[in-house]
Amino acid sequence: AVAYTADVIGLVGFGQDLRTMESQEQEGLASSMHRLMAMTGQRALAPIPYWTIPGIGPLLSRLEGYAPLKAGVEQEMRRILANTKPESGHSIVDKMVAANHRDNQGGLPTERLVGNAITLYI
Reduced to 3 states, what is the DSSP secondary structure of residue 59? Predict the structure, then answer.
């Protein structure tokens, strides 16, 4: 069910076939997002926000795998955004990128567009 949902989101939201159902990869976008959300949930329930402790926080984020996982998801979203066709308007991300260029002359930084794409996927 997760693979089907990921493929539908990929086609409708991003205008791209993520081929989650076809591939048996455990490291695809759907799997990475699932693990990232689980880790984020664990952090939300942590009694102490250890990831904000200067010096120790970033180290712990790398050791637990959160930082590289988040970086990988962000990189995949950048790839998806790079492959959009804003002029076509076939997908939600196409329309989001076109509106950003039209209304703000490209004013939103890439990090914000990546964050919006991740939110769309969730």
Answer: helix
User: Which three-class secondary structure state does DSSP give residue 81?
Assistant: helix
In this structure, the chain runs to a length of 122
- For residue 8, the surrounding DSSP H or E stretch is helix 2-9
Whether the Cβ atoms of residue 116 and residue 80 lie closer than 8 Å to each other: no
How far is 39 from 22, CA to CA, in rounded Å? 26
List average pLDDT for each run of 10 residues in the chain, which is 122 residues long.
78 81 69 87 90 88 88 88 81 84 70 84 82
**Type of residue found at 16:** Q
Please say whether the beta carbons of 29 and 35 come within 8 A: no
DSSP structure class, residue 4: H
